[in-house]
Automatic annotation (TrEMBL):
The keyword Ligase applies. Pfam families: AMP-binding (PF00501). This is Acyl--CoA ligase. It comes from Streptomyces lasalocidi. Residues 36-393 form the AMP-dependent synthetase/ligase domain. One of its GO terms (molecular function) is ligase activity. SUPFAM superfamilies: Acetyl-CoA synthetase-like. The keyword Cell inner membrane does not apply.
Amino acid sequence: MKGSVAYRSIQKRGLHIGLLPEMAAAVNPTTPITLDHDLGVLPEAGRRLTVAQYADHVDDLAARLWAAGVRTDEHVVIYKTANADHWMLAAAVSRIGAVVVNLSPALDAKTVGVLLERVGRPTLLSDGAKLDVLADVPLADLTRRVITSAGEREGAVALTDLAGAPRVKPVVRPIDEAAVITHTSGTTGIPKLVVHTPRTQGIRLLPQWRLLSLMRKKETVAINVPFVHSRMVAAMSLALLKEYPVLLMRETAPAEVAEQFVKHRPAFIEALPNSLMEWEELAEDPRAPFGSVKVFSSTFDAIHPGTMSRLLNASDRRGALFFQIYGQSEVGPAVGRAYFRHSAHKANGRCVGWAMPGGAAKVRVVSRDGNPPSETNPGSIEVAWDGIAKTYYGEQDRYDTNRDGQWWRTGDVGYRTRFGCLHMLDREVDMIPGVKSSLEIEDVLLSRLPELTELVVVQGPKSEPVPVICTVDDKPLDLNRWRASAAVFPQLADPVQIPQAELPRTATLKVQRLALARRFEEQLQAQA
């Protein structure tokens, strides 16, 4: 089977992650998958697998889950320590026709309890470390059974005890029924459970299949995104079907990332914007860990032009580019834009791109007040295509409030330029009176002050825009440098510096802006 044949099959029948490793092995059984850590569920497997071995492990784990009592149409919540085995276990759950519910290991016990209740007594697949986190959650009442992927726990079924279970025939879920459930970032409260079907997952591969076609050789793709995220489904599917060697990473510390990049020399890097910001310092590493990179890609959030420029200038590849995709869990990739070495530093960070060719998503900006959307009067950004998620599990009414026929309201505000570029200015819930775009302020000041590692503008107790800043090694901010750089934004309040470690973040490292704003409100009340 060729990759293009497998891809056409997915477009016709949908993407079933339980079948994907087997399909990829049929394309090329020797495609290597390298890990930067040991698998929790199969530590003896080592850190270097072929896709054929990977597919066999998924089939083995599917058999063990069946032996543990999991059946077709059940919901299986996976909440475990961050590890590449999460995606392997998700594929195994899918392979027996059960519905995967991926929960981030960053979620706290209270949130997990709420989501378990929302799903309705699912099977919980976890490990010892995370079961300790859930010690005060009434799992006996909230789950049908508990299965451990590593270690043993009283009252739970251990997958290690089921090694050698008879293999079972794979089950293909209906193309428009729930197959994988992920969750939103939770920046505004309890995350929403986003339902993906085989059809919506398959359609989302379309624009990205063409992006990977830019790589003519079978060079290494480094993937460093949360294993629980819907983006992991697309990233793994595309790389394996294209027969690209995969470096599947968990570690994000710059020193460890540099070691991996120097050793494996990836040509394509997929990572979170905040991870890429953290890795900027590697641009100065004499070993040139980014020297081999042809394409940098990020999809989770807009990224600052200064970061893109620094990374691109650290590549030795001719024509190196940074491809940014704007989207969200509910809609997948909506628009995209390529940035190049000679111009990235001059880019407008609010310009997130144009609709991608070949049957990809349609985007429009709708007025919020009856007047035409513009730079000074941003409208609501909406997306339409068949890749939109089917629903929010257990919250259909909440889903319906964002849906207008074929159009999905993203919750972001922006405008289109006369050339058709979509400019995303802010999340609607994060808008601050008198501020055109908090994100634009952050772009500008981060580019002017390299000592900053993070800058987030949030609404203060009196509706004033408060810049919250973090610095390299948490060193004190030079207020004179700040005032000189921030003079173009006179509406800003004085900056508030906090240690980087105190920034509240989501599972995809987005800063929880509302949580920061609440902190200021609580401090004001405490002083009253």
